[in-house]
Amino acid sequence: MADAAAMALSVLLAMALRYDFAVPSRKVGEAMWFALGAAVVFVVCGALRGLYAGRWSFGSFEEVSALVSAITLATVVLVGVAALLPVQGIQQERPIPLSVPIIASTILLATSAGVRYVWRLFYERRLRPRSDAAEKVVVIGAGEGGHQI
Question: Domain of 19?
């Protein structure tokens, strides 16, 4: 759900950036619909890439790799959709500029990876015992298992 919200907000922010924070009023409704559709597309792409399958540790390299893959796939789909939308008006203007999905993907990568990183920091901090009550030990050669002790 957080990824869908992040995608929708990323599209709206990308639209605002594209128009220097002065989005024409006729484009606001189109941007809202495109943002909702983009959220659905991203969640589907994330599911296809295994992002929500629970295979990896939260915020791990593997999960971020799946995140990048899902964002890339969603961006390709959204640029295609934006290119297929009919042009409008005398100036033959696109309802959603082709740059919007590309800008949105950059924003989405930063926000989604950032949220995962912060979540992992809080999760790992919660697992660690308080330093004043912990007994110090040295574990050699245990790898990932050493962190669990």
Answer: 2-148
Q: Residue 73 has which token pair?
A: 């796939």
Please name every residue paired with 88 in a beta bridge, in sequence order, or none if there are none: 93
Predicted TM-score (pTM) of the model is 0.79
- Decide if 33 contacts 112 (C-beta within 8 A): no
Find out whether 43 and 8 touch, Cβ atoms under 8 Å.
no
pLDDT tens-digit series, residues 102-118: 999 999 999 999 888 88
Task: Write out the E strands in the chain.
Answer: none
Q: Are 119 and 59 in contact (CB under 8 A)?
A: yes
| Element counts in the chain: helices (H) and strands (E) | 5, 0
Token pair of 59 as six digits: 């915020």
Residue whose C-alpha is closest to residue 148's, from 135, 132, 122, 129 = 129
Domain tally for the chain?
A: 1
